[in-house]
Task: structure prediction
Amino acid sequence: MIQDVMPGTEEQLNREMTTGYIGFDPTADSLHIGSLVPILLLVHLQKAGHKPIALVGGATGMVGDPSGKSEERNFLTEEVLRHNEAAVKNQLMQFLDFDKSKKNCAEMVNNYDWFSKMGFLTFIRDVGKYITVNYMMAKDSVKKRILNKDDEEGEGMSFTEFSYQLVQGYDFYWLYKNKDCKLQMGGSDQWGNIVTGTELIRKKKLGKAFAFTCPLITKSDGSKFGKTEEGNIWLDPGKTTPFDFYKFWLNASDTDAEKWIKIFTFLEKEKIENIVNEHKVDPGQRKLQKILAEEVMKFVHGNQVTTTTTATTERMFDNNLPVEELSVDDLLNMAGANVFEYNEELLKTGVDVVSLLAETGIFPSKGEARKTVQGGGVSVNRKKVEDIQLKISKAHLLHQKYILIQKGKKNYYLVNVI
Result:
């Protein structure tokens, strides 16, 4: 979980209880699984006896971090930001121990609290004078966005985004000065912003601060971690159902699962090695993926939801279990947000399967639906559609209301007949 480390960081952590922080920008009203790595860094820090601070970027969220971005993000209204801040704060409180009776209890701070009181002239006088433009221009996050001779079409970077590293640098300085915070952590794309903070602390306070970053997680095929066809995998069960959350980890490739179980779980090294070896003996059982999925589920959603979700999943994928025995909750969990309504009147005389797939919106057109059916890629109530002329009628209804559609191996849709 470690990529870049500032010299002296390990010695500092071994020397004394150290306060360390990570920032989370409230650009949405839920964190997603890409945020799990920094959350886990804070959890590990606290488990090792150090004091974690989670900073919610109420101020920096109004600016937008250019790190890893190819274009400037849209600004959010202050009302939306305040709502997002509260939601993110509630999520972070699930993972860290805020018991004030403990010396290393977690703390939550919001950089809007100090930036809202600071005027622009004060900022450029008390912060800007300590960091040179040359120093800021040397950062990769800036260089990649500044127009150069080989990029005639480049849009450059606004002053707002250019100043972001000063704003984040001041966060570190403020926490160092007011909370004795000597360590900042984050993803590897944050290294430039983090060291700006250590430089500010060195110049303004003659102090010594430390840093380390973790690698950015990617999938083995090079695609972005945490993304599916439906979008981000959120920590909020209202945005990503526990079933879809569990399914994401369960569907991991062997290569990804072997890497992720070391990062996203608290299992001991020896136990992980045993699980990996057992998995290699019989990969078809997907033991590695199942344990990974269960461990992450327990961490994010708790034991009870995990037990319910794993039991439901086993029922869903038990091919010996008749589809009629799946409960309404089972069906809804399988489909997640993919529930489509259909008029009951149209089923009275029966409707051909291609029309049903297109009219519900499961497929964008009859042509695409017909092509997938002909390729053997569609199942109705767990039975593969062999006949393009198949008529769907009330006889297909489960619980007198639903039809379960499957596209490929992993995509489930539910038709709600009303």
Notes: The chain is about 45% helix and 15% strand.
